[in-house]
UniProtKB/TrEMBL annotation:
It comes from Marinobacter daqiaonensis. The lineage of its organism: Bacteria, Pseudomonadati, Pseudomonadota, Gammaproteobacteria, Pseudomonadales. It holds the Pfam family DCC1-like. PANTHER family: OS04G0668800 PROTEIN (PTHR34290:SF2), SI:CH73-390P7.2 (PTHR34290). It comes from the Bacteria. GO terms for molecular function: protein-disulfide reductase activity. This is Predicted thiol-disulfide oxidoreductase YuxK, DCC family.
Length: 126
């Protein structure tokens, strides 16, 4: 069984997961990253999983970003709509657009200038 890891604290992500759950035809389960134990549960690491969509296939192969999306949707009747994202001429553009969107989503949700020391303080040895 494939396992799709998702950010349950993200309303947009949760909406897509609800749609996937509605149309999923078997072979796919869902795991909220925030509800997983921190000790060793995340092969790629929790922060990496919050930055990009991750899916681990039944054979242990990890799929990230566009590949995770395509693999997850392949468990629904709409999988064929997502397959073109893996075609050689489309994949590079789709991957760059996904990475930009995912980075922006992560920064807006999890980056906090109040929580991080200023760069000058870090360089100064604080």
């Amino acid at each position: 069984m494939d396992i799709l890891f998702h950010d349950g604290a993200c309303s947009l992500c949760s909406k897509e997961i609800r749609i996937l759950q509605k149309y999923e035809q078997g072979g796919l389960s869902f795991a909220d990253i925030h509800r997983q134990p921190d000790s060793g549960a995340f092969a790629p690491g929790k922060e990496a999983m919050l930055r990009r969509l991750h899916l681990v296939a039944a054979d242990g192969t990890w799929h990230v970003g566009i590949d995770a999306t395509v693999r997850a949707w392949s468990h629904t009747p709409f999988g064929w709509l997502f397959r073109p994202l893996t075609w050689p001429l489309i994949r590079p553009l789709a991957s760059r657009l996904y990475a930009r969107w995912a980075d922006r989503r992560y920064r807006r949700k999890y980056s906090c200038s109040q929580c991080s020391p200023p760069e000058s303080a870090v360089e100064g040895g604080l």
